[in-house]
Amino acid sequence: MEINNPGTLNIVSRFAQATFGTYQPQNPAAAANLKTCQGYVQTWEERKRAGEGMILCGRQGTGKTHLAVALCREIATGGDEAVFITTASRIIRAFRRSWNSEGEMSEFDTLKFYSELDLLVIDEIGVQYGTESERNILFEVLNNRYEDLLPTLLVSNLPVTELAKFLGDRALDRLFQGGTVLAFDWESYRRARA
């Protein structure tokens, strides 16, 4: 897991076309969240210096990942930023592989990778089992980034109150400091199209 190319995003095929321009807000709250994400990009340098992240949480199918990808795409194309999008489960699996003697990276190198990116997006927070081990892994990554003033963007289908229970108060408290929380509490776009 090495970023050889600044701007590497790790965008999955489903969101390959996700941009601010392709996001179609279906209600005023969605339009406001789009505007907030665009504002985050416009003020990226200040946010980066302050280590300010974002939390996008709420119902599935409401455009959270689309906006997170669009935001990352804009930041990555604006300079030589190391931006990476992944899921909480993939981070946990990367750490577990590092514990295997045949793993491609050591635990230290895995932590270093996730801890030194200019912007890390962790999607699907809350679909894990929620074990103490998983919570500790995610806390270690989030805490390292917090201490080094590196922004992290979390995406979750959980409401903020449930997110606190899942991640733990310590981790969430660090993300709230200077960060922005956007709620996506309307009906799924995907279900509306079905």
UniProtKB/TrEMBL annotation:
<dbReference type="InterPro" id="IPR003593">
    <property type="entry name" value="AAA+_ATPase"/>
</dbReference>
<dbReference type="InterPro" id="IPR027417">
    <property type="entry name" value="P-loop_NTPase"/>
</dbReference>
<feature type="domain" description="AAA+ ATPase">
    <location>
        <begin position="50"/>
        <end position="182"/>
    </location>
</feature>
<dbReference type="GO" id="GO:0005524">
    <property type="term" value="F:ATP binding"/>
</dbReference>
<dbReference type="InterPro" id="IPR002611">
    <property type="entry name" value="IstB_ATP-bd"/>
</dbReference>
<dbReference type="GO" id="GO:0006260">
    <property type="term" value="P:DNA replication"/>
</dbReference>
<dbReference type="Pfam" id="PF01695">
    <property type="entry name" value="IstB_IS21"/>
</dbReference>
<protein>
    <recommendedName>
        <fullName>AAA+ ATPase domain-containing protein</fullName>
    </recommendedName>
</protein>
